[in-house]
Design brief:
The longest helix has 24 residues. The chain has two domains: 221 residues, Transferase(Phosphotransferase), domain 1 (Orthogonal Bundle); 93 residues, Phosphorylase Kinase, domain 1. Helix content is 45%, strand content 11%. The chain contains twelve helices and eight strands. With 347 residues, the protein is α+β, with helices and mostly antiparallel strands. Strands 1-5-6-4-3-2 form a six-stranded mixed β-sheet, sandwiched between helices. It has a two-stranded antiparallel sheet with strand order 7-8.
């Protein structure tokens, strides 16, 4: 890969799309980004944001206070139902710093993953509001919230994914290695989920961590982003920060997600957990990295990968992990380019 390849693919100065064949689509994508940004809550006046949020909260509280205690988008389970569905909390799927996740089988046929909410500090109304906001998120590449339980203990019930996490498939030697095409498709799936959260949700959702442990795979290896929401891992409301954030705050959050996506691309390529991200990022930003790209490919892939696609993915990863403030690539640009790569290779 010569020094002009990156410039040829994306035009570093003006940041059009990546290839000459894609430049015709650049204005459309740019217009999409501008229209999406114009709809962003963070571009509204502070007073309007606060008034709209209060109105939305009032409406949600009224809808939450139904006689049955149910929410329109999700199912309300009792503690007894959760306990029975998880076989007395004996069907453990995962246990780690963020808590324990249990597999659950409910009488109505729902198979779910149950996560206990560690924090009990939120009031009931605020808890219901945030659960409903989570329940409204609906995208093929997001793990769907199916239900909740509110009482002495609080639980969230999500869709169960058959194949576990991407991290398992990249790092567990007992798992069948993912082929190159599947890895490229996973990158596309995650980019599509991020575009939905940032450009098609009102308010936009930035409370998500993009890493292989939070990317789950269903029975068809369709990737789904998990741990997404308006709340953090301790279930403290963070929707306030989403709604009242300044334009600079929005750009900073967007940069963080783009950076994480770049690191994810590197993990898909290398099959390695990038514990020392700073060292990896420094390496990929160096000019001589082009001469060693094939040495870093996951050995499980052998020679079964497309060299041009590898080169393109590394260029995207390089752009995503740039530290300069004026070199920001957008999620829609990444998504359209990756989709174009997959369509081109299918011809």
């Amino acid at each position: 890969m010569d020094g002009g390849t990156e410039s040829k693919l994306i035009g570093l100065g003006s940041f059009p799309l990546f290839s000459s064949s894609s430049r015709r689509a650049a204005p459309a994508v740019s217009n999409l980004c501008r229209r999406s940004s114009a709809r962003n809550w963070c571009h509204r006046s502070g007073m309007e944001q606060r008034l709209l949020r209060r109105l939305k909260a009032s409406i949600l509280r009224l809808r939450c206070r139904s006689p049955s205690g149910t929410l329109p988008f999700v199912e309300n389970f009792t503690y007894k139902e959760i306990n029975k569905a998880t076989n007395g909390f004996g069907m453990i799927l995962e246990s780690g710093p963020q808590g324990t996740i249990y597999k659950a089988r409910f009488p109505n046929g729902l198979v779910g993953a149950v996560k206990r909410v560690r924090s009990q500090q939120l009031g009931k109304d605020t808890f219901f509001e945030n659960v409903q906001l989570l329940g409204r998120l609906h995208h093929r590449h997001l793990v769907r919230l199916k239900g909740f339980s509110e009482g002495k203990y609080r639980f969230l019930v999500f869709d169960y994914t058959e194949n576990g996490s991407l991290k398992d498939y990249l790092h567990d030697p007992l798992r069948t290695p993912l082929n190159w095409r599947t890895r490229l498709q996973i990158a596309i799936d995650v980019a599509a989920a991020l575009e939905y959260l940032q450009y098609f949700c009102d308010p936009p959702v930035y409370d998500v961590s993009v890493n292989s442990n939070n990317i789950l795979l269903d029975e068809n290896f369709v990737a789904k982003l998990s741990d997404v929401g308006f709340i953090d891992s301790d279930f403290n409301c963070s929707s306030e920060s989403n709604v009242t954030c300044s334009e600079d705050d929005t750009k900073q959050k967007h940069r963080r997600l783009v950076f994480q996506f770049g690191v994810l691309l590197l993990e898909l390529i290398t099959g390695q957990s990038l514990f020392n991200e700073a060292e990896i990022v420094q390496w990929i930003q160096e000019s001589r990295f082009a001469y060693s790209i094939h040495k870093m490919v996951d050995t499980d892939l052998g020679d079964s990968y497309d060299s041009k696609e590898l080169e393109s993915l590394l260029i995207i990863a390089r752009l995503c992990t740039k530290t300069e403030n004026d070199t920001l690539i957008s999620i829609p640009q990444i998504l359209r380019y990756l989709q174009g790569q997959l369509e081109h290779s299918a011809l």
